[in-house]
Write a structure and sequence with these properties.
alpha+beta, Small Protein B, Chain: A, seven-stranded antiparallel beta sheet, two-stranded antiparallel sheet, single chain
Length: 157
């Protein structure tokens, strides 16, 4: 599925910038996210870290693992666990497709970003394959070359 358009009243919560550097993104999906009350309040405050998180499919359900949502500052003793597994809401066919793709070697499910869309918490997850060190260096070299070309074109204008 395509990424949500910015005109759809979306508010970005967190973004995993490192994922696009470390992985080749093959396909993306939009999934709903099951959160408890204090987690929603922490998300609205932007206290989310996706750095080491990943998604997995277990028993026909998709789960977001190792996503750190800080405890709500004004919460009481019933505050949430910061690194608990969170359920992802996807259609059955999407879950089966994810499970089949991840079963192939070298692929994983990586969350790219969390956002609110029309007041509902959503996660953009991707089927990704890890990059090798030489792939990362090649991507960096092409980015540098494009940046240099844009700079030169700007000077000539």
């Amino acid at each position: 599925m395509a990424a949500p358009k910015e005109g759809d009243s979306t508010k970005l919560i967190a973004q995993n910038r490192k994922a696009r550097h470390d992985y080749l993104i093959e396909d993306t999906f939009e999934a709903g996210l099951v959160l408890v009350g204090t987690e929603v309040k922490s998300c609205r405050a932007g206290k989310v870290n996706l750095a080491d998180s990943y998604a997995t499919v277990r028993d026909g359900e998709a789960w977001l693992m190792q996503c750190h949502i800080s405890p709500y500052s004004h919460g009481n003793r019933a505050n949430h666990d910061p690194i608990r597994p969170r359920k992802l809401l996807l259609k059955r066919t999407e879950i089966e497709k994810l499970a089949a793709k991840v079963a192939q070697d070298g692929r994983t499910l990586v969350p790219l970003r969390l956002y609110f869309k029309h007041g509902l918490a959503k996660a953009e997850i991707a089927i990704a394959r890890g990059k090798k060190a030489y792939d990362k260096r090649a991507a960096q070299a092409t980015r540098d070359a494009e940046r240099q070309m844009r700079r030169e074109l700007g000077r000539r204008r």
